[in-house]
Amino acid sequence: MSEIADKVKKIVVEHLGVEESKVTPEASFIDDLGADSLDTVELVMAFEEAFSVEIPEDAAEKIATVKDAIDYIEKQKAA
Amino acid sequence: MGIVSPLGLGLEHNWSRLIAGESGIGRIASFDPSDLPAHVAGEVPAGPTEAGCLTLSDWVPVKDQKKMDRFIHLGLVAATEAVEDSGWKPESEEDRCRTGVMIGSGIGGLQTIYDASVTVHEGRARRLSPFFIPSALINLVSGHVSIKYGFKGPNHSVVTACASGVHAIGDASRLIMLGDADVMVAGGAEAAVCPLGIAGFSSARALSTAFNAEPEKASRPWDRDRDGFVMGEGAGIVVLEEYEHAKARGAKIYGEIIGYGMSGDAYHITAPAEGHEGAYRAMQAAVRSAGIAPSDIGYVNAHGTSTMADDLELQAVERLFGDAASQVAMSSTKSAIGHLLGAAGAVEAIFSILAIRDNVAPPTLNLDNPSTESAIDRVAHEAQRRKIDIALSNSFGFGGTNASIIVRGV
User: Fold this and answer.
1) What is the CATH number of domain B256-408?
2) Using CB atoms, which residue from A17, A42, A48 is nearest to B131?
3) Of B91, B101, B157, B324, which sits most exposed with the smallest number of CB within 10 A?
4) pTM of the predicted protein model
5) Beta strand pairing status for B234-241 and B2-5?
């Protein structure tokens, strides 16, 4: 797993208070990890802070799963 | 009923320590108060639950803690104890809709507002937590309690500074009388022992500063050496229930609210009027609504904050009781826990009910030399056994708001 993926997973575990094993790439923040809409806003902010990236609102709305987050951040970092 | 206070966690633990004459006041531990004029406060002791201390994760899941200011944490702790103690677990939708919540606070999420202000000031407004607003809002204690237990009745809150706790319980009892609910979870929660809170009340010259080296002596209602109040934090919550409803389900009934009175001073933003005539009128209204004579009251839990206003309240109580003044005991439990602001009235109403249950008047600590003589026994230093059938509890707030509540054993 990439360094980015590791860090994303860690942030998700910390912010949503879920077991690490549940944070699979396919896991949906809202459907599988018990987040509500405010949790996802906070999560996106935590990603922005941790990776020094800007995630505009329209992009944030499309980040529904752990993999979505990892892919988006990896793309930003590669650019 | 449920209490979390500087004396610790839990109703009976608080009560036994209070009656034993113990103090919950100490040097401020949650931050370094050295730069501020006042160094003492009553803070809820952290530690293991079984030792009567607070381990927050036993009460609020870690992931939810950051979504709430500390006053909400403390409100949830006391509400949980109160609801479990009441045994009220509404199963039907109708029963849930007939159960409401009215928990007040004087100040709300002050530390949360401070932290958020710093974030914005640093140009990081886009980093502000989405939980900032719901963490700081005063009515969110009521909100969280309703969500936790599924209570779908009236969801309300009270903000009347240091009278919030009594107003919440009094108003909630009126909602039951008016038929809006059968059961109301009511009380107050406060956690303003933070740099902004201490600095703000210090600036208003309201806090004690002369006993920084001897914290336990700082809260000394009616004593000639008192020099301001000591801030405390905590929460007091009761479950109020329509009498026949409670009887029908065989509920444990601690007591009955028989009187409630309110008034406004229309005088000054922080100082009470001459002779505390607003307090007199609130007590008078409570006595009238209870349909009793003042002489029926065996114990008064005073507002008694350890400020100059103590003697004005004393005058008002003397005026209310007249010739019966020598028959009544009056104490200020703020001498042991400090002034819990918006939670004070709720915690003190609970102490008043326990005073009736156990026929004991809790003490006024540090009352070494009363500044004014009075026929009223102010229960200096040690608790007193005495027959108490009816008790009155006073709370007054900035803005000139006064509330009195009268309770009776069942």
Assistant:
1) 3.40.47.10
2) A42
3) B91
4) 0.96
5) antiparallel
